[in-house]
Amino acid sequence: MRYLERLRWPEGFVCPKCSHAGEAWRMKRGLLLCPKCRAQTSVTAGTIFEGTRKPLKLWFIAVWEITGHKYGANALTVKRMLGVKSYKTAWSWLHKLRRAMVRPDRDKLSGAVEVDETYVGGEEPGGRGRYTETKAIVAIAVEIKEVGYGRARLRRIPNVRRATLESFVKDMIEPGSVVRTDAWTGYVKLGQIGYMHEVVNQSKSDDPAHVVMPGAHRVASLLKRVIIGTYHGGISHEHLDYYLDEFTFRFNRRTARSRGLLFYRLLEGAVQTGHTTTQALFGGRQDADA
Length: 290
What we know:
Layout: H1 2-8, E1 25-26, E2 32-33, E3 40-41, H2 56-67, H3 75-82, H4 87-99, E4 112-120, E5 136-144, E6 149-157, H5 162-172, E7 178-181, E8 196-199, H6 209-212, H7 214-229, H8 240-251, H9 259-270, H10 278-281
Parallel strand pairs: 4-7, 7-8
Antiparallel strand pairs: 1-2, 2-3, 4-5, 5-6
Helix pairs in contact: 2-9, 3-4
């Protein structure tokens, strides 16, 4: 609990009720008492750990194991690692931790950035080009470096219309950056909203798409490999956003040499992420995440 306190209040205790900053009085059962408003609070209140009936030590073990898997861990694997009896517990813990993997205030991408879309789902008869009725559409942005790739951002989007794609670009990429896309009409106005727009017309190129737009296609290929290899394709559209957050967390830290740093970053996000009840998680269809 002291470790979580340092993560949640790195500059010292701040009362969630009156915003008093300074020392708090320690009480039994790990509660902290604000000396100003006398409110009692727990370090886990308002975090993904709120209301947990399992020891925090078990959560720490879960975070350590999850950050140690290069391509992610499914619920059945976590259930075995932790020795819990309930698949539902392992599944809900994974989804709560996925919500903590991406900070809402993270820096935007910058420099040269490739933007494209990919489609997640099974075979769709009659589907051609950007047409789909059953698959999920995922927008991808990835920084292009002189050698290799930088950070990536992914988001599930409802369609590939201009307003949708421009909103994704504005949310993910710093104005003034070079944005490289294909010739799809949804990107045609990027040069008018603060970006240096480079268009790559794949239909007029002798090279295949993965050569013309290597960054976005590389990310899309890795994403589909994880979905098939780790989750066996069993991801519902309702929860896809959080799987994308986990993929982004791992991709952007793929060169990290310290597993301890990944552990630290995930717990740091966990105390900054609001509580979601297990009931709310299961409001949608339970994934075949086994």
